[in-house]
User: What shape does this take?
Amino acid sequence: MSTSTTPDADTTRLRRPGVVRSLRLGETTVTYVPDGAARLSGRGWLPAATEEDWAAYGEYLDADGYLTAGVGGLLVERGDRALLIDAGFGPGTRPAEPGSPVSDLRGGALLDNLAALGRRPAGIEAVAVTHLHTDHIGWLHHPAPGGDRPALAHAPYLIPEAEWTGRAHLAAHGTGPEVLAVLEPQVRTVADGEEIFPGVRVHLSAGHTPGHASYVISGGGRRLIAFGDALHSPVQISHPEWYAAPDHDRAAASDARRRLVAELQEPDTLGFGIHFADVVFGRVRAEGAGVVWEAVDA
Assistant: This one.
């Protein structure tokens, strides 16, 4: 089943947080594991979009003019083996601050959702990180409930080499020295093109951060690109020139988005947008003179 994001479809999924959803890629199962959600100001998060633009794309915004963004991770399972890509925000909330484009950021549900899927943290052999912003590494530094170590501290944290080398810039985004010190003993840096799990390869897509990476998961004649924060909303599929306010290098990020949108139009290629409300899995298809995101649920 697929749900188009065009106005004649059921658009309520564009304005609600994502729920647990799975796809099969041959012998591999990929599952979105929610941790929480956030609201992103349409004009504040995507500053290049005008009021006129949002009048045309109003189905993406809630009544207060915010985009709904899910927060969580992607569980990749092959037989008894499991990899997690990104690790949510972790337990807690971040209240809105004056002038901030982010509102109502909350997390904490990842471990419970993993348990409901039959996965204990100890059964995850590695955690691959798209980038080091706080809503992607929460459970890598927060202590597990009732413990004094992070729930995933038994596993290596796979981080793109350029992201770890350039980590000093992250203090402005909340990932300060105290967080990095917790991560460091588990960090193993990875390189572009490296296979980190059967059928999973690193694909550098720098711009949002200096070493941002996507992960390409192949199986059953299809591939899925887990593209992290290269895109924050399905509306950017139609407008890759709309940069995100926290993009480290706007020009590089826009170039990465354009390349990604082109890749997602290739045959047998799907995408995973971790912040894409309740349309996290999808494909890019042509519509009129442009392209749109079409949700895929199987």
In short: The chain has a mean pLDDT of 94. The two ends are 6 Å apart (CA to CA).
